[in-house]
UniProtKB/TrEMBL annotation:
Protein's UniProt name: Toxin
Superkingdom in the source lineage: Bacteria
InterPro entries noted in UniProt: CbtA_toxin
């Protein structure tokens, strides 16, 4: 299971609403996140550098070797 799938499951289960989009409202766009949203959040918080972009992307998409155990 990918990080996106896990987070989106929680979004749907608890009817969570995104507040990160300018001019957001509950009915205008999807509340679900994608891998780009996670990468942007990691970059904004300083958790991602150029050297580990591919690793972070693979984990986010559920493709990391350790994620398949």
């Amino acid at each position: 299971i990918s990080l996106c799938d896990a987070v989106n499951f929680l979004v749907e289960k608890y009817a969570l609403v995104r507040t990160d989009q300018p001019g957001f409202s509950a009915g205008t766009s999807s509340q679900l996140i994608n891998s780009i949203d996670i990468l942007r959040a990691r970059r904004a918080t300083g958790l991602m550098t150029r050297s580990n972009y591919r690793t972070v992307n693979n984990i986010t998409l559920g493709k990391h070797p350790e994620a398949k155990q």
